[in-house]
Specification:
The protein is mainly beta and about 90 residues long. It has one domain. A 5-stranded antiparallel sheet has the order 4-3-2-1-5, with no helix packed on it. The radius of gyration is 12 Å and the shape is globular. It starts with 15 loop residues before the first strand and ends with a strand.
């Protein structure tokens, strides 16, 4: 299977948007948003790799303008839900 999210996108047009469902670092649930701009592996390979990562623009109350960087998938999926998909 091909990685459909392998090319970087601008922050204004993410592949997916995930939002926190639990409090994160003292901030209320729903206050963290991960805008996924690139995925390095296919979903099948991600499932087998505990260090799988996504390139994201992370918007938080601490950084409302967002911050770019790689985030481990295991730090997002258990604590957030996908609210938008734009493949």
């Amino acid at each position: 299977m091909k990685n459909l999210c392998g090319k970087s996108r601008p922050a204004s047009n993410p592949y997916e948007v995930w939002q926190s469902t639990v409090p994160v670092f003292g901030c209320p649930a729903g206050s963290w948003t991960w805008n996924v701009l690139k995925k390095y592996q296919t979903p099948e390979k991600e499932a087998a790799n505990q260090y799988a990562r996504w390139f994201c623009n992370v918007v938080t109350p601490i950084c409302p303008g967002g911050e770019l960087g790689d985030v481990y998938v295991s730090d997002i999926k258990p604590f957030a839900r996908k609210i938008k998909e734009n493949l």
